[in-house]
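User: New here, please read:
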Amino acid sequence: MLIKNQKKKTALTSILLGLSVVLFCVSCTDRFENIEKYQRPERLQGKIFTLIASQKNMSIFSQFMIDTGYDKVLDKTGTYAVFVPSDSVMKIYLTEKYGTFDPANIDSTVKQTIVKYHILPMPWSKDQLQNLSSRGWINLSDISNNKPTAFKRRTLLRESNRTYKVQRFLSGTAPYDIIVPENTAGTVDRTVYSSSPKYVPLFFDGFMSAKGLNAADYSFYFERPYTSGQVYYANSQIIGNEIFAENGFVYLIDKVVEPLKNAEQLLESGSYGTFLQLIHNKSVFQFNSAATLAQQGASEGMQVPDLYNLNYSSTFPINIHDELVVSSTYSVERHNGLLAPTDAAMTAFFNEYLKSWGSNWNSVPKNIQRLFVNTHIANEAIYLKDINNGFYNSAGDFITKNDFEIERAQYGSNATFLGLKKAIVPKYFSCVSAPLFLDPSFKAPYF
C-alpha cells in the first residue's frame, strides 16, 4: 500500500507540475505580446499574396494570381521571390498585345504564363540575387569563388511535354530515330519529357564585371539602356528595393517579361528550317520509365503516352530544346551561343561549297553536317563585345564579325541567338584538309 500511495503522489506531482508549466507559458505569452521586440515588424504585412494585394499599383497582377489560384499557393506553402509589373505597364502590355487590360477578358493560359514566369521558387533578396556562383555564395577572399557568375534563376513556368514526328532508320541491327518535319510521311510519335522549368536571366554590375560586359552588350539584346547600380530581370528593371513578406520578397518591375524562348523555339520562329534539320538529324531518344509511370492514372493501369528524354549525345554542345545547360547546378551561370543561317544562306553556302556531294544537304555526309553545325555554336553566350572582338566556336575556330552577317539577335532561355544572312565557313574548308570535305572523289594518298 505504501508503494502504491507513493506512485499516486508521484503521478499527481507530475500532473500539477505540467499544469504549472502550461499556465506559466500562457502567462509568459501574454507578457511577450506586450514586449516590442516580440511584436510583428511593421515592414511585414503578411505573406506574399496578402502583401501584393495590399499594394495600390499591383492590382492587375494580383487579380491574375487570384484567377490562376496562385493567391492561395503563395499564401499557404513555400517561399518565393515575385517580380510584379506595375498596373501602368500591365495595362500598356495587355492592351497592345490582347486589345484589353481587363483581367476578365484575358485568356487563363496567358494569365498563368505571366504569373509563373514572374515567380522564383526561392526567397531571393536583392543582395542574394547578386552574390551567387554555381558553387554557392561567393566569397570575396576566395579567389576561386569571388565572382557572381550565376546570373540565371529558375521560374515556376514549365513547358508542356512536346511530341515530335520521328522517322525510324536501321543501322545494322540497331534502329535509330530522326526528328522530321510535321508533314513527313511514314512517321511515329515520340513525346519528350520536359525535365525543367524555364530560366530567366538577371543582369547587374557584379555579373557584368565578371564577364567583361558593358551597357551596350545588354542593350544589344534587350533594346533598352543599362544603368549601372540597377538590377534587371531580363528586359525589365527592378524599381527600388525588395518588399519583405513573411515567406519571401516582392519586387516592383517596369516591364512585363515574356518567357524567353529556348534555342529550338527560336529556330522554329524564323526561316531556319534547313539548319534546324541538320541538328535534328542527330537526335537521340531514350525511354524515361520514371516520368512515364509518374503520369496521372499510370499507377491505376490507365493508358498513358510513353515519355522520352531527348539529347544529341556528344555531337553538339547544346540540347537545343532543353532549359538546362549541362545540369541544374551549372544552368545558373552557363549559356551557349547559337548562330543560325537562314534557309537562303544555307542554300547559298551549299551551292558554293558542297554541290559536288549531290543535290541538297541530305546528300552531305553526316560528319560534314556535324562540323558545319558546330561551326555555328559557341560554348559561351555571344555578346556584342564578342562580335566586335572575335570568339571561339565549338569547332575550335576563331570567328570574327567578317565571317558572318547578322539579320536578327535575340536572347534565349538557354542560348543567345543570332540569325545569319551569311553562313560561317568552317576553317577546315580553307586548309590542307579541304579536299576531304569538299571533294567526294578525293582519296588520301598512302605514305
